[in-house]
Amino acid sequence: MYSRVHQLPSLATILASPQPTIDLRLEAFERSSQLFLKAVTAYTTRAKEEITRRRDADASRIQKDAERSKNLELEIANCKEKEVLLLKVLEREQMERKDAESSVEALKRQLASVKEKCNKVDIEIEQVKGAIAVLRKERKQEAKLLDSQSSHQKPELRGLESKLHCTVEGVQKDVLLVRFTHLDPVDIDRDFSIVIDVSTPVYKVPTSSPIIPTLPILLNELNDSREFFRFIKKVRQAFVELVRSKT
């Protein structure tokens, strides 16, 4: 607090004094100046301290902002790297997906082709089954016919064997061996034989001993007429003629 300013005497009063003097009150002014300077100094000090505090706070904030900015830049850089990696992964997955879709389409086409082939094979199998069924039916009918003929012709065969001195025996399935004796007057035990293959509708004679020159003609007649015993008689007669031609 500043001291109160006293009321100064008037100029006329001062001049009327025998020794005019003016009290300037320098001590009070000095004290007032000192107080003012202290107040200014204190204000200046507080202002400097506040400026320093704010400067330090701003510097700290700036440093933190710089660090935060640096961290953000690093995070952004990491995010960009991850984005690049993710884009590569996505691109690879898209390529793999395209390859997988292409493979699936190829497999679908193959499956369709296989199904088509299977359908064709199923049709062929059914056709073959039908053909086999027809063939089995025919073979059964033939077997039935042969059994019937055999039951009727067995007595005739026994008589023919005894009369013609021949034997008929099965050497394999559907293969007959017909043997003749008493054809050569010089050697009545000499064998004359033929092998007849009846495994197919067209009969065959793989071998004959001795060889009969007219055998192909006789075999054609057998296949045309299906008269088996007539064929046996003609074969015997052919063997007899061979013996006569060599005597």
Describe this structure as you would to a colleague:
The chain has 247 residues and is of the alpha+beta class. 70% of the residues lie in helices and 10% in strands. The protein has a 4-stranded antiparallel sheet with strand order 1-2-3-4.
- Helix tally? 4
Low-confidence stretches: none
The biggest beta sheet is recorded as: 4 strands, antiparallel
The helical percent reads over 70%
Element-by-element helix/strand order: HHEEEEHH
How many beta-strand segments? 4
Distance between the termini: 184 Å
What structural class do you assign from the helix and strand content? Answer: alpha+beta
Global morphology: rod-shaped
Strand arrangement, largest sheet? 1-2-3-4
Percent in strands: 5-15%
Give the radius of gyration: 70 Å
Mean pLDDT, all residues: 83
Summarize this, please?
The protein is 70% helix and 10% strand. It has helices at residues 11-16, 26-164, 215-225, 228-245, and strands at residues 166-172, 175-180, 192-197, 204-209.
